[in-house]
Amino acid sequence: MKQLSLIVLICFCFSLASLAKEKSTVYRFDFGSGKAKKGWTQVTAFTVYSAGKGFGLIPSGEMVDGNTGDYLSSKKPFYFVVNLPEGHYQVILTLGGSPEGSSTTVKAESRRLMLENVKTASGETIQKTIVVDVRTPKINDHEQIKLKERELDYLNWDSKLTLEFNGEHPCVAAIEIKKADHLPTIFLAGNSTVTDQENEPWASWGQMFPNFLKPEIVVANYAESGETLLAFKREKRLQKILSQMKSGDYLLMEFAHNDQKPGGNHLDAMTTYKDELKYYMAEARKKGVKPVLVTSTNRRRFDEHGKVINTLEEYPEAMRQLAKEENVPLIDLNAMSKAFYEALGPEISKKAFVHYPANSYPGQDKPLADDTHFNPYGAYELAKCVTEGIRISIPELAKYIRDDWAEFNPSQPDPVSGFKWYESPSVNLVKPDGN
Length: 435
What we know:
Layout: H1 2-24, E1 27-31, E2 41-43, E3 55-59, E4 63-65, E5 72-74, E6 78-83, E7 87-96, E8 102-108, E9 112-120, E10 125-134, E11 160-169, E12 171-179, E13 185-190, H2 205-208, E14 218-221, H3 229-234, H4 237-244, E15 250-254, H5 269-286, E16 290-294, H6 315-326, E17 330-331, H7 333-348, E18 353-356, E19 368-374, H8 376-393, H9 395-398
Parallel strand pairs: 1-2, 13-14, 13-15, 15-16, 16-17
Antiparallel strand pairs: 1-12, 3-6, 4-5, 5-12, 6-11, 7-10, 7-12, 8-9, 8-11, 18-19
Helix pairs in contact: 5-6, 7-8
């Protein structure tokens, strides 16, 4: 009997410890100069981030404390930063509260689009939930990802959660952050066409993708510019992903642009390229993770008849064959991107890529003309292609697509004129690797 009581006591103490640990991962912030809610940390217009404090604002313009003192706003984008350990987090945002109404676009970390043009009427607030992957390069006590020099300052890789509030009139009233490591995760492995591009005017489909999913699944985008299947593995990016995976997660893979190039990371389409993809799939399956193959986006190159020229040789076809051989889902982004570019045509399709005349950005004395990397409009439309591919091909994953999703036909893309992107303050005119 005493032994039973001791076991019950131990279990009870363990439950209390687990509960305490869970509670310690809840952070609550009340915005504005009005009296903060009990148990919430107040954030005013003067609460500037510092590492010692562990949270705060990083404005790009003057912060405005609402007339009621119950929200913060600005005429320019502003950031809210919280020091957090690696993990997945559910972030409950209370937006609005302004007498003038509000319109808020939310990005996380390295410009991941989370919420788009959330509007509130005069005095109204609305709650929206997002889920964010926060990570560091560390794998274990002895190993970490071999980051490239340019990545060292990326918001994706610090020990913080960074939220960007942008839009016509962004207004934030409160933020609540909870640990959410139990949620299923979609891991993305790929190159510059997939990665979270850190700076304007570059963008990739992976960073637009979370916008189209419910806050019941996490997107963890580990893609990086210039990567090949071999380099991704050698730099321990795959090892990092595998260390984070759990049964029921998904791994989406898009490689080819750099694998086809000569050099030490080259792979032959029908042999070594397929072999490396098989290795990725086998390692994912060991963790109970479901692999998904994504054929690579086309480059922007047209023939005299306005048809896209295949510059990726046999690589897309090799992946299509492999999907059948291994019985894994395929999202044929190569075919969908071809339809998308051809629908726009040779000239208008430039508006989906980083094609900008000189002086479009400060210090830009020469035109930008990149037929590989996308601007936000192109990335947004390609993220829609991927989402539609999931809807068609992966029913068990399609349940996580937003309820207001409308079927997307890449041959009938959204008009360029109707697309509105609120640029982040960070701009870099250097082309990403892999051009």
